[in-house]
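fyi for ur records
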Amino acid sequence: PQGGHRLSGAFGQLLSAAALTGPVLSLGHGVLLVVQWSPAGTDRPHAATCSLGNVTSVCAVLTFAFPAAAFATNCYVFATGPGEDAVIVDPGVGVLPRLQALLEEHRLRPAAVLLTHGHIDHVYSVTPVCGAGGAAAYIHGDDRYRLRDPLGGVDPQLLAMLEAEFGSRATWREPDDIVELSGGASLTLAGLDVRVTHAPGHTEGSVMFALPGVPDGIGRDSGLTSTVVSGDVLFAGSIGRTDLPGGSMTAMTRSLRDCVLPLPDDTLVLPGHGPATTMKRERATNPYLQGLRP
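which gave:
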């Protein structure tokens, strides 16, 4: 589909939790991960078998991931199946045509838009996405102020480059319905249970979203049992920068120690930029986690 690629079983293809010395697949051709397609014209995902080494899984629930047209911000879409409500995470710059196409193709209805923080590369398309489906935007209270004018914090030269690239003037309007989140909150959206963890450092109101279980196609052999959308808190092999307004390395270190390190090794990590990873891998190899004790 032109709107995006289904990640049916792609997470199973991505990595083996039992052998995390293998490579993590990176972004390529506009797709976050290797994909497994479903037959055209079917209402439900087919039971495709996907494998990497000795990891085999059966594909089921719809999960989509693709990078935005600018800054390669990962936009995620989660739904329990075709024709259902969907949760959209971090709709960035230039995602609307692709996002709209996949929503239409799979008859998905935006039920909520979750924002990991308020930087423009993660929130740029939130208002039209919310407006199209009457959905609310969810953001931590400490980053709520950023939705008033996220363009105001963008370097004028960078803004001019983006406008030249996309051929239109950048404009902004707040979503009509904004829900302020707090750390520790539990949400049920589109049939999905989501837990909010406040993890400041990249911004004051940066959060991670935890979902029980793992996205489509992760089989029992993977060893993975839960998922965290980490935004710009944790990347594969790195962390989000802390030198922008509202950032703090002191706060980031505390978040890494108190919020990231306690995550179990069997957690799949879906970051705001770059490839997916696992907590087992990051605990063993991420230099910013070395020497920290929860």
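The longest strand covers residues 192-198. thats all i got for now
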